Amino acid sequence: MELINESSEKFRDKQEELCGFLFELLRKINILEKEIYERMQELRAKNEKLGIPKNQVGPGEKELKGKYKERLGEIVIPACTEKLIGKRYGSSFGNPQKYGYIDGDCKAIFIMKTAGRAVVETYYKQGVDSKHKFVLRDVGGIWLLDEVYYGFASDGDKWYSDNVR
Questions:
Q1: Residue 141: left if φ>0, alpha if ψ -120 to 50, beta else—which one?
Q2: How far is CA 138 from the centre of its chain?
Q3: Residue 109: how many CB atoms within 10 A of its CB?
């Protein structure tokens, strides 16, 4: 990962703390998402042997999705603002993982111009040139993930509101 610091001189030293917090959160989400995806694949293969098509919900699938949401909540609720949690979480998982690029070939830009807000933009390729923007806020002395956006290189500077996963 290439990490670029575009912060005001006053806040350059915050990069390690805030990017560390964000990237660790994304790694935890990736690990859980990969585990649940693999378990779902095994469950669907087992259900298919029972004659249940992959496009139908088979025994155990709904419960696994519920477990995913529960475990994801344990990761994201303490790390995110109520505003972001209110956008829902735990409704999807897949392969590759949503943030699977984080330890691969990507570029991250750390931007901080005021004491209470930082932005990390990531640029990566998963099929197409894509990007995420993460807004971190200081909430009562604790840094939390407040907003997530996604976009595509072909969209220029346009961003679309997203949830944490």
A1: left
A2: 19
A3: 17
Q: Which residues contact 60 (CB under 8 A, 6 or more apart)?
A: 43, 47
- At position 152, the amino acid (one-letter code) is F
From CA 94, how far away is CA 30, in angstroms rounded? 10
CB 107, CB 101: distance < 8 Å: no
> So what's the pLDDT on residue 53?
87
- 84 pLDDT tier (thresholds 50, 70, 90): very high
Q: What are the structure tokens assigned to 115, written together?
A: 């004491």
- Where helices occur in 50-144 by DSSP H, the ranges are 61-76, 82-85
Output the CA torsion sign for 116, 81, 23, 133. negative
What is residue 68's predicted lDDT score, i.e. its pLDDT? 98
CA 112 to chain centre: 20
Mean pLDDT of 143-165: 96
> How sure is the predictor about 107, in pLDDT bands with cuts at 50, 70 and 90?
very high
The whole-chain average pLDDT of the chain stands at: 96
